[in-house]
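Reminder to self: tokens first, then the designed residues, so the page reads top to bottom the way the pipeline ran.
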């Protein structure tokens, strides 16, 4: 089974949890963006599409931060390559927390995911509140996991073994163990 890592703005950090997982899961891959610092949605989506096309089997996408929105925009643009599932880790709310460099990733797509997924949200992430993360999980039909007080879950957090428990059901042949959500009202 392939884990395909979609990193966020500024790219991977040395020793981050994605790098640890990359070593731990044989056949996994991290694809590289042409420009990590000045993201262009269409370019990022194109790199994701290429990486999925190159995967030997339908991958489980492990997306962090802006990588989450890249996956969503790929789907919104008609991305239809087979994907087994996705773990969305601390997606950024580019609508409520506008950042000029990320303006091309707004608005956040509101669509139903065609594969099982989990949204992992931090209780103290400056980029998205837990309420908004729970709302988007519902809109996308994804499970929701409160991962505690871990900020934006950057490389400083090391291996993140708790996250491996979230990706495990996605690696199952049938994707079982993921509870899909109805979209709650956002207050």
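Designed residues (187 positions):
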């Amino acid at each position: 089974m392939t884990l395909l890592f979609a990193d966020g703005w500024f790219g991977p950090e040395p020793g981050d949890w994605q790098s640890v997982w990359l070593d731990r899961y044989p056949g996994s891959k991290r694809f590289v963006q042409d420009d990590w610092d000045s993201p262009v949605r269409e370019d990022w989506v194109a790199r994701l599409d290429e990486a999925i096309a190159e995967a030997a089997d339908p991958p489980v996408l492990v997306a962090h931060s802006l990588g989450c929105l890249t996956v969503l925009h790929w789907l919104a643009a008609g991305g239809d390559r087979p994907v087994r599932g996705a773990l969305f880790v601390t997606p950024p709310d580019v609508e409520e927390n506008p950042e000029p460099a990320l303006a091309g990733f707004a608005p956040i797509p509101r669509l139903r995911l065609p594969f099982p997924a989990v949204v992992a949200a931090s209780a103290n992430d400056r980029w998205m509140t837990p309420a908004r993360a729970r709302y988007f999980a519902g809109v996308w039909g994804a499970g929701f996991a409160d991962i505690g007080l871990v900020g934006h879950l950057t490389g400083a957090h090391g291996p993140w073994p708790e996250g491996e428990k979230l990706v495990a059901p996605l690696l199952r042949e049938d994707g079982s163990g993921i509870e899909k959500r109805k979209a709650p009202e956002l207050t």
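The mean pLDDT is 90.
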